[in-house]
Amino acid sequence: MVIIKRINGQLANRLHFLSYFIANSKAYNYSLLVTCFPEYYNWFTPVGDEALRVTFTKTGVEQKALNKILNKLHALTLKFKIKLPGVTFHSITGNDLTLSQYDLNQPGFIKLAQQQVVIPEGWVYRDYVNFKKYLPQIKNLFSPKQEFRDAIEQEVNRARNMGDILIGVHIRRGDYIDFNGGKWFYSNEVYINKMRETEKLFSGKRCVFIICSQERLDANEFSDFKTVIAERPAIVDLYLLAECNYIFGPPSTFTGWASLYNTVPAYYMESADEKITINSFKEFFD
């Protein structure tokens, strides 16, 4: 059994991280308990009949108490350098420092997960093979609630009535002012230039840009384009991007989840000066 008690980051980070473990637990037939998703749990309504070996704790006293106990036990094992019978706090902090991905398919990890309680500590746990294999079931599990699906459908229909090709634009600033030295903290001018470049790729077609951002945007700044701009919940923005024909934005798990969810080609803006070509847009597993 594996217990996920902590994941750094917000919605998209958690969806990616959990999906690797969900796929791995399905492949190797061990149970998975997630105690760090309660604030997002009610945003989803699973669909389909496929059973996955995962349980989510809901918000409440029991969830908080369980996490508190697990954190306390972990602190005690570190302080006194002891091991708890049948429990392994599995840390990959060294991998995180070097961004060296830890393959969940390693026999040693699988044996632990099947025979003990394993509590992972770290970010770069990955299992791309089984993630891709079980993606349909994972998509069913993380299907947004009907109210969000209705809002997404409304926005998509509005955009399709305006043009031929839907281009999702993820304007990510906020924490990106400091993240990675501010390398991917782009001004509106940079995004507008990318939108112009993208339009040229589809000459003769009417491009509609669905713009998603955590901040309030002035639609007048994008008046040269056909756009759909609104303040929306994060989950609506995320799955709205997944309904586009193409997506671009700075490197992030947010754009990545939208890309893989509906196999939408995405372009990750590594620099402001890099020119977009049609080959810049790639599917998540390419």
From TrEMBL:
Keywords: Glycosyltransferase, Transferase. Pfam families: Glyco_transf_11. One of its GO terms (cellular component) is membrane. One of its GO terms (biological process) is carbohydrate metabolic process. Coiled coil: none annotated. InterPro entries: Glyco_trans_11. The keyword Transferase applies. One of its GO terms (molecular function) is galactoside 2-alpha-L-fucosyltransferase activity. This is Glycosyl transferase family 11. It comes from Mucilaginibacter ginsenosidivorax.
